[in-house]
Every structure is written in structure tokens, then in C-alpha cells.
């Protein structure tokens, strides 16, 4: 599954960060505590969060995440989108809640993985 | 620099403004910054209660950002607090349910309840951290990232790292953190001033962690200068007076100075191989007779006027015994006092050493006329620093000046760094 397909499943839009259709989403992680994401997300994960601060892009870049999904229809800050564009981190915005988004992705085969 | 009153939903009713002030005076503090969650409604009462007891109460607020990051505002006056409060209330959704989140009691300085705050003070504002910092600065305040060592509600826990370009005036660490460890982690090159706070929500926790500053007097304008390191004001350090051995040493050395000593010698010896840690402090002050020396170990006895309970010696004796060690006190009127406390180095209850840099800066800058000699040894390696050596090296500059403080810091950091390598080696670490 690629990031455009993730956005489609979640009735969302790619708000920024121009995704590469060839890049596969390898797993998923959900958390709103960025230090926790830094500790436990795995490279290639799609990350589901309600945080929209610019630091989410820095964390995603650091961990090599496939995309960030911002839930609850929250609009990312303009500098978050600018940074996402610059760093090449796709940001998907969805009207769904985190619970619904994770449920749909899990049902579609995106599983959680443990950091090695 | 960060305490709450009963207005904070997570605080107890017993933390009314007068009780907070009493607890702070009992703990020997010169000032507290009252920072209730997202509200300033108990500030005026706290300031008035402080004025009655000679305690400086600095106006503050702990604002919750949209990302659930707590940012402290240290404000110049009550009007600025009103300005910030309006901005916060405009952006704070929800109504409090006292059964779920706790009562939010507005009280006066006479222990009377004036009413209850209806806002959801435990909630988050709709303001990003950047907007909170901007609102604090617009109100004329200082913005301090609260308890950065805590995962929950701390800036780094919530947002992974300090956002680039966020104009913070300082970072605060909680009473769970040792300042020397926190400094290495958060401000290794002095990027931020670090404040230590109790974050007390009940009277017994007031003074659990403290910050030492070099100020003309404790007021918001002076604190601003100290955080900026301007005009000779400075943040000297901090820690946990009841816990860190470094602050026990500071307390005892200051007892010596108060007893008229012109020479105070301090030795700290860590020997993990012999499983021993000893502290020795010797002064040539006026000393005590046998009866007074015996009473000095009674927690309810003190010759001080500034503090109601002299916790220094009894606390240190208890800490030593709790860690499989012992405590000896020898004193002679007219000659001075010598004490030795020993601890089993590896004992699970052995108190941490804490931040010696704080101890030495407060001693050297606070008592420039007393010759203070400090020696720290770890497994045969050691360094020494003394008033005389510093003064000679500084070539006339005053110890309490920015140059004096910077030089002292450098000497201590260099010494401590060499010892931490020796310690790691002895413990078989990296």
C-alpha cells in the first residue's frame, strides 16, 4: 500500500509533502507523545496522530517514517506543511478519529511492528 | 520558581495562599513564583499573604499549550497576569466538573473561600507552544518550558525536541531530576538557564526543589536579569535540599559561615572500590559546647532566625545512617566544628551527590570574605578549588561577577569531568 491509497482509505487528502507512489507503507504506529514516537516507531511506518506542530515532521524525518496522518480533521500549521514539503514527508489529513483511522488501516493489512 | 495554590484543580484545598506562604517561609525560601494552571485568580491574595510574612511572591502562570505542553509564565506584575489570563481564557474551552477534575478554589489571604473558578483549568488552550510563548512575551513575561525532564506535559516529552527557534527564556526541571544530570542532557553548553522547582501542589512539597539566584532583591525585574545573565545577576544553580548531598554540604558550610568562620574546609571522597562515600566539613567558627552540639542533631533545634526547623545536621545524619554509614560531630567553643558523614557507596538508599557546581557557586559568590576550600576525590583522582586560588587566578576580579562565576564554573566542570571518568572506570562502565 502506498500513501495515496492510505489517504483514500481514510477519506482524507494529502495536505503536503508530495508522496512517492512507489514507496510502500510497511507498518503503522499511533501516539501523540512525540518522544514516544521517537523511541518506538519503526522506519517505513505510517504514523497516526492528532499533533500538528511542525516538530512532527522532524520526528518523522528522523525515524524515516512513510507518512504522517493527522486525524479529527485538524488543519496542520502552515509551517508544518512547508517543512513537510521541504523534507519530503507526506502529510495526510483525515476527518476520521484516530480510533477509526487505525481500525481501517489495520483491517487493510497495515500492522503494528515492534522496534527491534 | 513554580508552586500552585488551591485554584489548581489538582491541588488540595489546604494549599490556600496563606498556607503556601507559611510553607515557603518554613522551608527558608526567599521567593516563590505562584503558577496555577491557566489562571491568575489567586495571585493577588498570594502576593498580599507574602507581603505579611516578608516572602516575595512572584506572579506567574502555568499555561497549557494545544500540544499539551506546560509553559511557565513569570510575569512582571499582577496587571500583566490579567492580560495573559484574558488571552488564555479566550482560548480555553470547557467548564470544570469539580467531581472529576477537582475543585478550583478562589481564596483570599485570610483562608476564606471567595468562589470557584468555572473554566476547565485542567484542559489545554487552543494556542500552540509558539503562540503561548508569544502571548507571555507580549504580556511582558518570561517563558520557561516547565518540567522538561517529564514525559507527560513536558516540552520534550510531548514534542520530541525543543522546537527550532522557540524563544524560551529558560528551562525548568522537576524535583525528580538531578541538576547536574539534567544540565548534561538539556543544556550541555549553557544554551538555557536551568531552574529547579518543586511544582508543589500541597504544603509539604514546598521547597522540595529550589533554584539559587544572585539578585539584588527577589523581584520579577531582577529574575529577568538573572535569566539573561545581565548586570551581574545570575542563576547559580539548584537542587533538592532534602535529598542531594551537594545541598547538605552547602547547608553545613553556610552554618559554619554563620558561626563566624573565616575558614571552611570541605572534603568529599567517593571510593566505589571500598564501597564508601565520605563528607567532611571543618570550620573555625565559634563552635558549640557539648550540650549545644548534642541538641544540634535534634531536628527542632536551630540557632537560626530565618528558618523555623534546622533540618541540616539531623537530615544528613539520618541520610548517612539510612545508607549503612555513620555520622560524627565534634565541636569546641572558640575553636570550631568538624563533622564527618560516611555512606555505603552502593547502598540503595544512598542519596545522590547532586550538583556540586551549585554548592560551590553559592558558597564562593555568597561568601567572598571567607576562605572556602573544597576537595573532591574519586578513587585516588582529585581536584581542589578554593577562594584563595580562584582569587589569585582571577587577578582581582570579584568572585560574584560574571567573569568570576564563569571561571569558577569552568574550574568545577573540568574537575568534575575528570572525576566522572575516574568513577566510570572504577565502576567498570564505558
Structural notes for this entry:
The complex is a heterodimer of chains A (116) and B (430). In chain A, 37% of the residues lie in helices and 17% in strands. Chain A is α/β, with parallel strands linked by helices and 116 residues long. In chain A, helix 3 packs parallel to helix 4. Chain A is globular. Chain B has 2 domains: 237 residues, TIM Barrel (Alpha-Beta Barrel), CATH 3.20.20; 182 residues, Heat Shock Protein 90 (2-Layer Sandwich). In chain B, helix 1 crosses helix 2 and helix 12 runs antiparallel to helix 14. In chain B, strands 1-2-3-6-7-8 form a 6-stranded mixed β-sheet. The two termini of chain B are 36 Å apart. The chains are: A alpha/beta (116), B alpha/beta (430). The interface between A and B is medium-sized, with 14 and 15 residues.
Most extensive chain interface and residues per partner: A-B, 14 and 15 residues
Strand and helix order of chain B: HEHEEHHEEHEHEHEEHEHEEHHEEHEEHH
The major sheet of chain A is characterized as:
5 strands, mixed
How much of the sequence lies in strands of chain B comes to 15-25%
Give me the number of helical elements of chain A. 5
User: Could you name the CATH homologous superfamily of chain A?
Assistant: HprK N-terminal domain-like
Helix content range of chain A: 25-40%
What's the SSE pattern of chain A?
HEEHEHEHEH
Query: What count of domains describes the coordinates of chain B?
Result: 2
Nearest-integer average pLDDT of chain B: 89
Report the top-level CATH class of chain A: Alpha Beta
CATH architecture of the largest domain in chain B: Alpha-Beta Barrel
Side by side, the strands of the main sheet of chain A go 1-5-4-3-2
Strand ordering within the main sheet of chain B: 1-2-3-6-7-8
CATH homology superfamily name of the largest domain in chain B: Metal-dependent hydrolases
Number of extended strands of chain A: 5
What's the total helix number of chain B?
14
Radius of gyration of chain A: 12 Å
**Molecular shape of chain A:** globular
Tell me the count of domains of chain A.
1
Amino acid at each position: 500500500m502506498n500513501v495515496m491509497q492510505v489517504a483514500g482509505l481514510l477519506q482524507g487528502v494529502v495536505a503536503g509533502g508530495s508522496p512517492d507512489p512507489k514507496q510502500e507503507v510497511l507498518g503503522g504506529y499511533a501516539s501523540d507523545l512525540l518522544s514516544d514516537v521517537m523511541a518506538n516507531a519503526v522506519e517505513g511506518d505510517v504514523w497516526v496522530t492528532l499533533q500538528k506542530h511542525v516538530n512532527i515532521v522532524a520526528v518523522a524525518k528522523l525515524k524515516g517514517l512513510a507518512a504522517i496522518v493527522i486525524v479529527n480533521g485538524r488543519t496542520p500549521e502552515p509551517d508544518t506543511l512547508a517543512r513537510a514539503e521541504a523534507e519530503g514527508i507526506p502529510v495526510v489529513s483525515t476527518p476520521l478519529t484516530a480510533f477509526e483511522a487505525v481500525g481501517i488501516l489495520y483491517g487493510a493489512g497495515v500492522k503494528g511492528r515492534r522496534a527491534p | 520558581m513554580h508552586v500552585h495554590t488551591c485554584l489548581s484543580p489538582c491541588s488540595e484545598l489546604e494549599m490556600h495562599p496563606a498556607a503556601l506562604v507559611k510553607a515557603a517561609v518554613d522551608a527558608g525560601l526567599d521567593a516563590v513564583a505562584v503558577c496555577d494552571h491557566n489562571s491568575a485568580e489567586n495571585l493577588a491574595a498570594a502576593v498580599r499573604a507574602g507581603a505579611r510574612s516578608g516572602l516575595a511572591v512572584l506572579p506567574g502562570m502555568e499555561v497549557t499549550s494545544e500540544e499539551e505542553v506546560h509553559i511557565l509564565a513569570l510575569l512582571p506584575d499582577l496587571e500583566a497576569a490579567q492580560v495573559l489570563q484574558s488571552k488564555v481564557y479566550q482560548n480555553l474551552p470547557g467548564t470544570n466538573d469539580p467531581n472529576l477534575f477537582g475543585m478550583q478554589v478562589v481564596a483570599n489571604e485570610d483562608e476564606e473561600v471567595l468562589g470557584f473558578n468555572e473554566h476547565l483549568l485542567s484542559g489545554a488552550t487552543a494556542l500552540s507552544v509558539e503562540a503561548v510563548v508569544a502571548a507571555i512575551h507580549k504580556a511582558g513575561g518570561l517563558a520557561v518550558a516547565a518540567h522538561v525532564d517529564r514525559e507527560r506535559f513536558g516540552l520534550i516529552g510531548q514534542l520530541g525536541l525543543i522546537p527550532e527557534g522557540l524563544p524560551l527564556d529558560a528551562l525548568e526541571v522537576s524535583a525528580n531530576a538531578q541538576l547536574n544530570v539534567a544540565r548534561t542532557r538539556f543544556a550541555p553548553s549553557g544554551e538555557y538557564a536551568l531552574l529547579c522547582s518543586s511544582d508543589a501542589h500541597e504544603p509539604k512539597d514546598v521547597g522540595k526543589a529550589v533554584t539559587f539566584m544572585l539578585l539584588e532583591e527577589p523581584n520579577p525585574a531582577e529574575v529577568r536579569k538573572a535569566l539573561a545573565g545581565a548586570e551581574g545577576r545570575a542563576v547559580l544553580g539548584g537542587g533538592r535540599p532534602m535529598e542531594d548531598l551537594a545541598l547538605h554540604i552547602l547547608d553545613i558550610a553556610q552554618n559554619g559561615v554563620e558561626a563566624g568562620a573565616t575558614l571552611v574546609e570541605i572534603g568529599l571522597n567517593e571510593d566505589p572500590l571500598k564501597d564508601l562515600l565520605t563528607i567532611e566539613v571543618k570550620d573555625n567558627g565559634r563552635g558549640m559546647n557539648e550540650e549545644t552540639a548534642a541538641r544540634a542533631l535534634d531536628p527542632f533545634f536551630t540557632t537560626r532566625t530565618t528558618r523555623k526547623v534546622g533540618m541540616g545536621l539531623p537530615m544528613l545524619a539520618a541520610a548517612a545512617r539510612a545508607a549503612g554509614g555513620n555520622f560524627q560531630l565534634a565541636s569546641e567553643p572558640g575553636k570550631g566544628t568538624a563533622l564527618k558523614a560516611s555512606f555505603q557507596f552502593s547502598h540503595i538508599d544512598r542519596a545522590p551527590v547532586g550538583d556540586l557546581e551549585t554548592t560551590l557557586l553559592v558558597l564562593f559568590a555568597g561568601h567572598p570574605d571567607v576562605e572556602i576550600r573544597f576537595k573532591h576525590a574519586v578513587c585516588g583522582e582529585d581536584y581542589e578549588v578554593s577562594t584563595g586560588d580562584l582569587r589569585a587566578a582571577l587577578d582581582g576580579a570579584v568572585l560574584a561577577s560574571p567573569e568570576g562565576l564563569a571561571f569558577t564554573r569552568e574550574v568545577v566542570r573540568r574537575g568534575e569531568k575528570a572525576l566522572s571518568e575516574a568513577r566510570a572506570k572504577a565502576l567498570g562502565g564505558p
